[in-house]
Amino acid sequence: MRQLIRFFFRGVRAVLGPFMLLGEKLSRAQPIERSAAEQAEVDAATRRLALYQYRTCPFCIKVRRTLRALALNIELRDAQHDPGHRQALEAGGGKVQVPCLRIEEDDGSVTWLYESDAINQYLHSRFG
Questions:
Q1: 78-99, pLDDT tens digit by residue?
Q2: What is the mean pLDDT of residues 2-9?
């Protein structure tokens, strides 16, 4: 039964995925503009962030829209098709759930932030 459910949702994702990606492209917000110095400072801060995501996950699309609106250059890691990223997500965060933002602090500690609303709130509070 579990296999049947997985097969069903993979089929739904295969059919709806291209439409979701097209919708993401067509509804892009204009990124905020910063001075070159401010953007360089933001880029330096985002080097310690990575977003584990699936391309067609609606919650991941929601976070990617926020990344674009805030002009953030955060590394996107595909946890669906890259077994290395999937394994790192499970080992570090404790579960394979996307979206997940990996935050490396200045002291070297790592925080794994799940849930699109929590991630968007964090990004807006730190970079908005």
A1: 999 999 999 999 999 999 999 9
A2: 86
Residue keyed to tokens 């059919």: 15
Spatial strand order in the sheet of 49-53: 75-78, 49-53, 100-104, 110-114
In terms of Cα–Cα distance, which of 52, 49, 61 is closest to 24? 61
**CA 26 from centre of chain:** 19
Entry pTM:
0.86
CA dihedral (76, 58, 100, 78) positive or negative? negative
> How far, in Å, CA of 117 to CA of 58, rounded?
12
1: DSSP letter: -
H helices then E strands: how many in the chain?
Answer: 5, 4
DSSP 97: -
